[in-house]
């Protein structure tokens, strides 16, 4: 019987298998970076490649940057710890959110034709404002560092659980290899590595998720156990709070406390897919696709959007088999569920394969975010303030800044790891969703948006994020309620963005025509053709190349 299965412990065999699989994945990713090294010599090519990425690479890279460590590791901890109510944070809106991201993401191709090389630079071109670019770049760096901490915790946890050894050495090695393939491969190398990693955890997540349900005795057995279970706190502190419902009244700081929190979580997932800079940046270097290719991309997105739910099933399976015993495993607690289930089901081989998936998910997101942050500094700050800086200097700076941006979240994780991975990361997710969904995505479609509306949304979003229930909100009711806080951040960003935009003056119509061209009428003379939109736009916007004086 499944419920007689002991909690597995690491063995020399599992340690060796895990090490081999993880090193192999990282080695292949690094080789991909070196392969693209010769194709990304210039600063421009390092940032967006040759704009030739197709639908398969784009689709897998997008889901890899989106799902990250929380999807392939933290979701099992949520479902294990909170039962059905944890499912709302597992990602009920994944498919809708990423589908919206795909639609809006391809709009960015127009802005790369106008000279945009970073996500904040899209805002700079759209609003003709270096202030918006700098503010967006600064906000991104702060929020992405916070989000990177969760990726390191996912990797640290799975390493400790499967090998029984200290995790600092493994993470340092991972950080070094990740930095290498970002530095040498740039956008193209990182994008292809992301695609590889996205494919790995999609296949593995589906296999282990389905297998875990039957390993635990089947859906009926799991539902029976969860329905009768109570919440158990960290360290094994028992309570009488049931976790068998879709809400769990643990405390207002928990997203699944009531239906207000559930609604806020749904909006978070809907907006954050496009609001995450590492997601929307996946489209900076894509090529134009056919309808068939677009369908392939959406199929990959749909398949991988279900992966978090599959991994969440592993947490429910662990609860059905081991009860609340994992809540005594400090400092990992319920986040240990998925790794232990993979070890129990597949022994050393299962542990190794699943560990590779976790590292693939976490490394892919770290790589995407670090790439963005490094270009934020070099392009959105240095080049923004000093446009005569030579391209070779900008490229050198971007590569150098990869190192501290890899180290900072690693040190944070080592000195103060977050207790529940997905809960910690949701704070950064809400702020990114509230700010960048509107400032970047909506601005590409709404003509009336203004730079002051964008500035107001960024400033408000960063300030409101500090009211998180685990920061200042705990002492400032009603912001000690996660749902109130999250809706205040996202809804407030939307409100100030719209209201301030309506109260301030937009760009002149002749400039807006570059971004919102009217539908072409049938030409009076069929032999005459109009110049492509991007060529017209280049002439009107007159974006200077790095190192050239501003017009």
Helix and strand layout, with pairings?
Blueprint: H1 12-35, H2 43-48, H3 55-82, H4 87-91, H5 94-105, H6 108-112, H7 119-127, H8 130-163, H9 168-215, H10 219-228, E1 230-232, E2 238-242, H11 259-275, H12 277-280, H13 291-305, H14 307-322, H15 337-385, H16 391-415, H17 421-441, H18 451-465, H19 482-503, H20 509-515, H21 533-541
Antiparallel strand pairs: 1-2
| CATH domain class name | Mainly Alpha
* The CATH H-level homologous superfamily: Sodium/glucose cotransporter
Helical content class = 55-70%
Assembly category: single chain
State which percent range the strand residues make up: under 5%
How many runs of DSSP E, i.e. beta strands? Answer: 2
Q: What global shape is seen?
A: globular
Radius of gyration: 23 Å
Order of strands across the widest beta sheet? Answer: 1-2
| CATH-derived topology | Sodium/glucose cotransporter
Structure overview:
This protein has 551 residues and is mostly helical. It has one domain: Sodium/glucose cotransporter (Up-down Bundle). Helix content is 69%, strand content 1%. The protein has 21 helices and two strands. It has helices at 12-35, 43-48, 55-82, 87-91, 94-105, 108-112, 119-127, 130-163, 168-215, 219-228, 259-275, 277-280, 291-305, 307-322, 337-385, 391-415, 421-441, 451-465, 482-503, 509-515, 533-541; strands spanning 230-232, 238-242. A two-stranded antiparallel sheet has the order 1-2. Helix 8 (130-163) runs parallel beside helix 18 (451-465), helix 9 packs across helix 14 (307-322) and helix 9 (168-215) packs across helix 16. The N and C termini lie far apart (74 Å). Mean pLDDT is 86; it is low at 526-540 and 542-551.
């Amino acid at each position: 019987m499944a419920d007689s299965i002991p909690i597995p412990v690491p063995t020399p065999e599992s340690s060796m298998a895990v090490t081999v699989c993880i090193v192999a994945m990282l080695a292949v990713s690094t080789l991909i970076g070196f392969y693209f090294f010769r194709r990304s010599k210039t600063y421009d090519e390092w940032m967006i490649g040759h704009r030739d990425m197709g639908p398969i690479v784009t689709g897998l890279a997008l889901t890899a940057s989106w799902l990250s460590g929380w999807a392939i590791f933290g979701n099992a901890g949520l479902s294990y710890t909170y039962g059905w109510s944890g499912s709302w944070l597992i990602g009920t809106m994944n498919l809708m959110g990423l589908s919206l991201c795909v639609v809006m993401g391809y709009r960015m191709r127009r802005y790369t034709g106008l000279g945009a090389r970073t996500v904040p630079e899209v805002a700079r071109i759209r609003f003709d404002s270096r202030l918006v670019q700098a503010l967006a770049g600064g906000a991104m760096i702060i929020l992405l560092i916070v989000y990177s901490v969760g990726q390191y915790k996912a990797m640290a946890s799975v390493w400790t659980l499967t090998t029984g050894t200290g995790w600092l050495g493994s993470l340092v090695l991972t950080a070094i290899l990740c930095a290498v393939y970002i530095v040498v491969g740039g956008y193209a190398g990182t994008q292809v590595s992301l695609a590889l990693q996205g494919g790995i955890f999609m296949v593995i997540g589906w296999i282990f998720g389905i297998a875990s349900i039957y390993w635990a005795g089947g859906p009926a057995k799991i539902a029976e156990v969860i329905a009768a279970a109570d919440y158990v706190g960290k360290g094994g502190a028992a309570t009488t709070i049931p976790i068998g419902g879709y809400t769990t009244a643990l405390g207002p700081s928990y997203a699944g406390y009531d239906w207000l929190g559930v609604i806020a979580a749904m909006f978070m997932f809907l907006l954050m897919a496009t609001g995450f800079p590492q997601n929307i940046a996946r489209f900076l270097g894509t090529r134009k696709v056919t309808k068939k290719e677009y369908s392939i991309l959406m199929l990959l997105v749909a398949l991988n959007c279900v992966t978090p739910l599959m991994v969440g099933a592993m947490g429910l399976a662990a609860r059905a088999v081991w009860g609340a015993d994992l809540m005594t495993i400090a400092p990992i607690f319920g986040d240990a569920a998925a790794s232990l289930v993979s070890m129990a089901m597949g022994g050393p081989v299962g542990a190794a394969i699943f560990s590779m998936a976790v590292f693939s998910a976490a490394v892919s997101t770290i790589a995407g975010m670090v790439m963005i942050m490094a270009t934020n500094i070099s392009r959105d700050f240095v080049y923004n303030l000093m446009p005569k800086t030579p391209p070779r200097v900008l490229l050198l700076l971007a590569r150098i800044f990869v190192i501290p941006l890899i180290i900072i979240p690693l040190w944070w994780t080592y000195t103060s790891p977050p207790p529940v991975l997905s809960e910690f990361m949701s704070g950064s997710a809400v702020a990114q969703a509230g700010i960048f969904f509107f400032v970047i995505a909506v601005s590409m479609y709404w003509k009336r948006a203004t730079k002051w509306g964008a500035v107001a949304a960024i400033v408000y979003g960063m300030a409101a994020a500090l009211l998180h229930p685990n920061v200042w909100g705990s002492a400032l009711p009603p912001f000690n309620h996660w749902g109130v806080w999250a809706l205040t951040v996202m809804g407030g960003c939307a409100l100030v963005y719209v209201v301030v935009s309506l109260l301030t003056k937009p760009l002149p119509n002749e400039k807006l025509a570059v971004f919102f061209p009217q539908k072409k009428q049938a030409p009076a003379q069929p032999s005459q053709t109009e110049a492509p939109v991007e060529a017209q736009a280049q002439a009107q916007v007159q974006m200077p190349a790095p190192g050239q004086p501003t017009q």
